[in-house]
Amino acid sequence: MKDDKFKEYRYFLKDSIRKTIPFKFTDQNLGVPVPPIEKPYSEGAILIDLPGPDEWNRISQIDLTHAIGNRKSHRVYLNQSLTLEELAYLLWCTQGVRGKRFHGHAYRNVPSAGCRHAIETIPCL
C-alpha cells in the first residue's frame, strides 16, 4: 500500500514520538544556553537597514482564508530580484522578532521549541 511506504517518514509528526524519545537529553533540559537572537556579523560587513512593517506600502494585505483558498504553485519565475521591501517582508515573516522578552529569548513570528530557532537565514546579493 502506498501509505505504508511513507509511514516511517511521518513518525516524527505524531504525538506518540514523545513516548519513545528521551527528551530529558535536549539542549534545553541540559541547561545549554539559548543561542543569540542574532548571530554576530563580521567586522566590515555591509549592513543594510530594512524597512519595517509600517513602511511596507506595496505589500498587499490579504485575508488568510482567501490566501489559502487561492494558493497555487508556480513553476515559472520572473528573472528579477526582490525589492528591498519584499525582502524585508519575507525575512520578517520567516525570522521576524516581534519583541524581546528576557535572558536572550524573543517573541518571533514563527514557533520554535524552547525558543531555540534552529533556522538561519542568509540573504545573498
Quick one: how many beta strands? 2
The dominant shape is extended
- Proportion in helices: 10-25%
The H/E string reads HHHEE
Query: What is the CA-atom radius of gyration, in angstroms?
Result: 19 Å
Q: Report strand %.
A: 5-15%
Give the CA-CA distance, first to last residue. 46 Å
Low-pLDDT ranges: none
Biggest pleated sheet: 2 strands, antiparallel
Task: Round the mean pLDDT to the nearest integer and report it.
Answer: 80
Which strand order spans the largest sheet, edge to edge or round the barrel?
Answer: 1-2
How would you describe this protein?
- The structure is a single chain.
- With 125 residues, the protein is mainly alpha-helical.
- It contains 3 helices and 2 strands.
- It has a two-stranded antiparallel ribbon.
- It starts with a helix and ends in a 17-residue tail after the last strand.
- The mean pLDDT is 80.
What is shown here, in short?
With 125 residues, the chain is mostly helical. The chain has helices at residues 2-10, 64-69, 84-95, and strands at residues 97-100, 106-108.
Q: Which key phrases capture this entry?
A:
125 residues; 3 helices; 2 strands; two-stranded antiparallel ribbon; mainly alpha
What are the SSEs and their pairings?
Layout: H1 2-10, H2 64-69, H3 84-95, E1 97-100, E2 106-108
Antiparallel strand pairs: 1-2
